[in-house]
Amino acid sequence: MSFNTVTSSFKLTRRRKAPLIESLQVGGLAGLAAIAFALIGAYVAMDKRHVIEDTLTLSQVAFALIAIAAGYIAGRDAGSAPAGARAVLHGALAGVIAGLCVSALVLLTASYNLRTTLVAASPMLVKALSLGAPNASLQALAQLPALGAILGAAGGMLAAVPGPWRRAVTNGFAAVLIAGLFRDVFVSVLDNVPDLNGPETEVFGPAGLNQGAALVLFLIGAAFSLMRDRWRAGHTPASRARSSKVGLVLLLIGVLILPLVTNDFVAQVAMLVALYMLMGMGLNIELGLAGLVDLGFVAFFAVGAYTVALLCSSGPLAIADVSFWVALPVAVVLAAGAGMLFGLPVLRVRGDYLAMATLGLGEIIRVLVLSDALGPYLGGSQGIIEIDHPRLFGFSLKSPAALYYLALTLAGVVAFISWRLQHARIGRAWLAMREDEDVAQALGIDPVASKLLAYTIGAAFAGAAGAVFAALIGSVYPHSFQLLVSINVLAILVIGGLGSLPGVLVGAIVLIGLPELLREFGEFRYLFYGIALVAMMHVRAEGLWPATIVAKEGAHA
């Protein structure tokens, strides 16, 4: 029940109106979305970032995507006449409506002082929406509907062309957008690769991609997409599975060499991704395999962190002064014991009741750590500081790259254990309970014992993650163990693919790494991220890298 609740992807079908009315409605909704995007201040913030040097800003990309999406939806709903003319016309109509809505916003902002209630309605917004024009002239106002018509027509054309060509255009554009958006990361990689001095000046400008490089990247991305589709059409599922393994190997190679070819900031982001990947491996046992929705996962994460803090700190609250390698197994054992202790009273319930019970356990741990009763032992809100870094062969692991490899090594060990458990008898029992607990019990599986084992192993992995977290940060505070940590780990599994070990890696990169790399946009980066996730869940509801059995079921369906 809980597994189906988390992974459900039911699609509601509404009654369609006439194609013309549908196009007007889609265009109006797209225009309102563009207006809301502008009035929260995101448009001005994005206008300062170039994707293509002196040609295309990120704000213009956002408007283009809204208009193209409106044109695609309107063209798809309009049906296809010969050569897709009807889809193109309806897409252009939706784009015009979206452009008119934005033009109305520009005219209203330029004519009236709206900043008393809408702070973002500033002259900078007018300039950004007017495509660089200093004021809202008639020419500038006419440009937006015309541009919307062109982009909407392009979206309608995408709806009319065959799927491989549509994917080729989408992938080519995505290659350009990713390269321009993460320019600093790619420049740091090119700077650190031996015998490649100066290629970044040919590919990247001071603020974005060069125009020629953007065109080349678009063609490469489109060509690769077409070749991949042709290859997949001519090969068996077995060969596709082998290619998936090759892709996993390439991904692992990239993960291993990333800190060596980037700067310290990217290495710190990679370190955070490795930490969440370690936590995701633990929750994957509970949710991905056994189907247990655990919202109190952060409690065992806190147990591991505080254990290492008390055993490895040189501060006044330390109860011992031992090596990290001695404290790590102690943290794992204590977290596993806490998981077994807390699991006994709650694992006889299921579904939403289990989620609420585990949520309560997580909050109990957080309140206890903050309480005055345990303040003399755990530091209360002051936390525990001066935690010693791990040492290996006489060297202190202080650099972001060294700590990254520490977290990655432990994540690899946990992944191997998870893989062995998943393919063992207990793993098959967990999968049976995930699908239908009553049927699994009728087949002779003890649900309470199996759940308790999954809960204990997941808690042990969470304790290992907490131990690494304390060593990475060098201090532990109660505010680091909020409910949001459990929610983030749960989202990693859903985005990556429940029950999929590669999905945990991909989900951690997408959920944790990308928002950190977009810190220049402040809180707006979570807005972009949320929009991308909503779109992704419509396209790939089973996750970015689903488990093998889920992928086979989807292919069969």
Quick overview:
This protein has 557 residues and is mainly α. It is 72% helix and 2% strand.
What does this structure look like?
This protein has helices spanning 2-7, 19-39, 42-47, 58-78, 85-111, 123-129, 138-160, 163-181, 183-192, 200-203, 211-233, 237-257, 264-289, 297-312, 324-346, 352-370, 375-378, 400-422, 425-435, 437-442, 447-473, 483-496, 501-517, 524-539, 548-556, and strands at 50-52, 56-57, 391-392, 395-396. With 557 residues, it is mainly α. Among the domains are: 163-228, no CATH class; 255-556, ABC transporter involved in vitamin B12 uptake, BtuC. It has a two-stranded antiparallel ribbon with strand order 1-2. Strands 3-4 form a two-stranded antiparallel ribbon. 44% of the residues are buried. Residues 1-10 and 553-557 have low confidence and may be disordered.
**Overall geometric form:** globular
Could you state the oligomeric state of the chains shown?
A: single chain
**What proportion strand?**
under 5%
Number of helices: 25
How far from one another are the termini?
Answer: 21 Å
Low-confidence runs (pLDDT<50, min 5 residues)? 1-10, 553-557
CATH topology of the domain at 255-556: ABC transporter involved in vitamin B12 uptake, BtuC
Largest β-sheet summary: 2 strands, antiparallel
The value of Rg in angstroms is 26 Å
Total strand segments: 4
Query: Mean of residue pLDDT?
Result: 83
Listing every helix as H and every strand as E from the N terminus to the C terminus, the arrangement reads HHHEEHHHHHHHHHHHHHHEEHHHHHHHH
**Helix-strand makeup class:** mainly alpha
Q: What is the CATH top level name of the domain at 255-556?
A: Mainly Alpha
Helix share of residues? over 70%
What's the arrangement of strands in the largest beta sheet? 1-2
CATH A-level architecture of the domain at 255-556: Orthogonal Bundle
